[in-house]
Amino acid sequence: MRIFAQSSGLSLEGMPGTRTLEVCLPGSDETVIHVMEGIPTWMGVAGLAAIIVLSHLLINAKSEIGVKKDYWKFNLFRFRPLASLVRLPYFPLIAQSVSIITFFLVVSAGLWGNQKVNIGPAITWTWWWILLIFLILGAGKAFCSICPWEGISSMVTSLSFKSRIKKLGFEYPWPKWARNIFPAIVFFIALTWFELGWDATRSPMMTSILAVTMLSLAALSAIFFEKRAFCRY
């Protein structure tokens, strides 16, 4: 097998900064693959520095103000049909049913589906993460009403599809030393390492393993700790 790479400033698509990989296999035609090199290093470092500086400026500005200002609010429960829907005993299951079905679809496709042509990575890394940003930005904590991990873990601890009253597990308080942002940072670093090191964004199997791992963490924390520790910390 002969594998060689030819670097050029301009790819066949007319995009600079693309490497052209020509792979030759015995008894097969030549295959040309174009690989994007990503953003320059200086741009990544500058972006990280800008995020850190702006974060400190915003935190300092908020601490100096010290007075909570009123902001525009809109009460969705002014719509009587929506208020009546939320009061239904099965509302949590109704709201989370689509995301839970999608979750099991992604896991099933990744574990038992075709590993080359698979819908799992596209749903997870393209649609899910993009919608997650806009849903949290626009709906805030209302996103919890459609979160599949919260929904499944609540079903496990309540032993019911309808009720959300905890019947299974313990109510241990979350450790005081972990009541900060550092557990989330460590989890984010581990997630990024898993994504880049194991190429999870293009692997249906790894995507499913990651989804099941997060579900296991959410369910175990719901069983052992109080107040939805996985969501809070």
Overview of the structural elements:
With 233 residues, this protein is mainly alpha-helical. It has 8 helices and 3 strands; from the N terminus they run E-E-E-H-H-H-H-H-H-H-H. The chain has helices at residues 41-65, 80-86, 91-112, 120-139, 148-158, 182-197, 204-224, 229-232, and strands at 2-7, 18-24, 31-36. It has a 3-stranded antiparallel beta sheet with strand order 1-2-3, with no helix packed on it. The longest helix has 25 residues, at 41-65. It starts with a strand and ends with a helix. The model is unreliable at 1-21 (pLDDT under 50).
How are the SSEs ordered, and which strands pair?
Layout: E1 2-7, E2 18-24, E3 31-36, H1 41-65, H2 80-86, H3 91-112, H4 120-139, H5 148-158, H6 182-197, H7 204-224, H8 229-232
Please provide a brief summary of the model.
About 55% of the residues lie in helices and about 10% in strands. It has eight helices and three strands, in the order E-E-E-H-H-H-H-H-H-H-H.
* Apparent shape: globular
Strand order of the largest sheet: 1-2-3
Indicate the radius of gyration in whole angstroms. 23 Å
DSSP E strands, number: 3
The unreliable regions are 1-21
> Mean pLDDT, as a whole number?
75
CA(first)-CA(last) distance: 50 Å
Estimated structural class: mainly alpha
Largest sheet, if any? 3 strands, antiparallel
Count the DSSP helices: 8
Oligomer: single chain
